[in-house]
């Protein structure tokens, strides 16, 4: 896109939209920070306390971790356990980095990532190893055929048990972190990270047992069983378990994007994804059981194409999230909450990075007392309204004698805080666009207005730092032509704003001048803009 001008004939939004006018009254209605979860505070029951729930989850996962590691060590021995642990950890950074890259547009909180990985590595692995062992022994005892029990365990029992155990993490986040689970990308990321944790623990077991076999037969080096096992599991198929469980995550993602009234669809899609994950897992395990060359045939003919298809779907969904920003945020720019260039910059990952880097650089330069022109010679902020956002040397308090190291440390702190403010602004704007898309689809909850109000409140507190940086990034990335900058839609100047870092503790602005009595801050589709 080379031209970022806003179309004047833009259609009216299909869901209510907060107007920028009377911004003081609107933002003053935002609840206090402790009430920002939009649900009644439940007092008097310990198990409803957030702290209690976090402690309970941490305790359960820690106990599962101790139990599964003890079981694996018992099967592999101490030396085999350490060798398996050292080798199994190697593909983990690659897997986590891939899924976090996919989630860069609207990154989920780290607590979800840690929970998903811990659930897969500890809880799901513990359930799988206990259930698989019990089922295999029961089949062997019932049929008196140990070889048949191993085959049924690998092709029937293991896929059902393991995929169900991993899917439980996706289900828990879908139910209890619903606002952070909005579509296919979220489902793919959570499912993939859960399966990566599961594969990590499973690899410790397989590699530890392989090392034990090498100790018994005296092999080592590239011809060892350990090397062969590592090559198959960590080099050829590190995405095997994530690929299976991602099918379940896609089902949950489609359910999350569906309208709330479509209850049957919201139930059947996750179940369908789970069944497909079980079937693909069963085919993968069976390929190595029934034929010596079946593994390579299934790997080349089935696994690689499916992996490519799922990867394409995940990347397409990621790009669709960026297109959602370009489609939904101009309504807020027309209402005065954003500058016209911001939707363009926010819908480009390159422009987002440029904005963070520019804010970090400029605030660091300003903190050193330099009078450099913001973002270099020739830069013009265009229609970004409001007071001058950049701290100047003349406006600084009386100087105190500082060493060069102290000045540099202060400059870095200011630059880091500015970049963090821009990153937070980008995150809140992405959540706002996603929320509005959910409202269009009928998937938003009854607290849509409260959530929209809070997100706009967060944007407003950071816009003094973020808006000029994003406007610069849109121009620097070639998304906005300087000679075709649209005129600002603001009817009046913004209220005074605090300097950098104040958004962390600043109260909402007080009431300001606005339209007369009877003013409705929500712009309905049939109403003209004020």
Strand order of the largest sheet: 1-2
The sequence of SSEs as H and E is EHHHHHHHHHHHHHHHE
In percent terms, what proportion of residues is strand?
under 5%
Low-confidence stretches: 1-13, 37-45, 376-399, 483-530
Distance from first to last alpha carbon: 30 Å
- According to DSSP, the number of beta strands is 2
Task: Write structural notes for this entry.
The chain has helices at residues 23-28, 50-88, 92-102, 110-143, 146-176, 184-217, 225-236, 240-257, 263-290, 294-328, 330-335, 342-346, 349-367, 404-441, 448-476, and strands at 17-18, 522-523. It has 530 residues and is mainly alpha-helical. Strands 1-2 form a two-stranded antiparallel ribbon.
